[in-house]
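for the writeup, i need someone to sanity check this before i put it in the appendix. the sequnce is what the collaborator sent (i think, or maybe the updated version? ugh). structure was predicted straight from it, no edits. if anything looks off just tell me and ill rerun, i have time this weekend
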Amino acid sequence: MNLGTAMTLAALLAAPAGETRADAAPASTPAAATNAVTSPAPSLAPPMAPRRDHLSTWHGEQVSDPWFWLREKQDPAVRAYLEAENGYTAAQTAPIQPFADALYVEMLARWPSGSPPWPGPPTPPPSST
């Protein structure tokens, strides 16, 4: 991370909700990243996973796990809950998405081959809509 990116990140983290700290960012910072925090995140209630009774026996002890049902990956209710969580996260982090995209592009540019050191092709940053 270069000094400009680090300063922009620090300015974004220090900005109160709803305030843009573009004046604190250096001129070398990408414009999209500089203006990433322009309004507070929408006030959505986070999704709450319903509790479902489930008892397991571990080492002779009865253990209650009300979220055991979330392990059932084929259950449509699990998928719906996870999609609700993903939607909530996307809505809450939307104001900083341009900065996240710019940071991702900068990190990819630092690898000699242009691709990250994990197997498979590089994943492009999500598009900001």
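The two ends are 25 Å apart (CA to CA). Strands lie at 55-58, 61-64.
thx in advance!!
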